[in-house]
Amino acid sequence: MSASQSVLIVDDHPVVRRGLHAMLAAEAWVGEVLEAATVAEAVREVVLRPVHLVAMDVMLPDGDGIEATRRILRARPAVRVLVLTMAQDDDLVSRALAAGARGYVLKMTSPDTLIDSLRTVAGGGMVLGPDVDPVPLTCARRAPAALRAPFDRLTVREREVLQRLAGGDTNARIARHLGVTEKTVRNQLTAVFAKLGVADRIQAALLARDAGLGP
Questions:
Q1: Is the pTM here over 0.90, yes or no?
Q2: Domains of the chain by residue range
Q3: Which of 17, 18, 138, 210 is most buried by a 10 A CB count?
Q4: Does the N-terminal peptide bond of residue 150 adopt cis geometry, omega within 30 degrees of 0?
């Protein structure tokens, strides 16, 4: 691992950012420490700066840190992301790892363990915090099953939205489950309809159920 890793802290709470900033600045393996409070700021920092490692919160003012992870890795695949959150939720862990995060750690983890986790991810490893179920990590390491066209064109998140839709969930329920806004769900459904070549949610649901993608 390089002796000078540039680390980006993404969290909307200034106290959290400053505390983590202070801990990282004292580490010999850390070079520059950057901060972002929103998804937009995080993506912009990664695109414009030589960021190596991202400590990513989940709930951000303008969206989902897991979606931010996906966008960051689409723009800069070599960046390593560790999700750092208060949310102890197996579904979030699975989504984070599916988006490309290299680990998932809870904020209440001891400072030493947190820094060790960041160092491990920076060095190319994967890590889950001591209070996080290891099952999602095992699943993430398995090769994903092949999907037939046109479903192979969907992102992981779009497939999640489609599966919820096929199960009868409203946009509001999908949004609550995924931790995003209803507007985000509507935008994702628009993309799903276009990729599947259907006109509405009924056609999409029927197509998904026929393909066995229902809940």
A1: no
A2: 5-140, 151-210
A3: 17
A4: yes
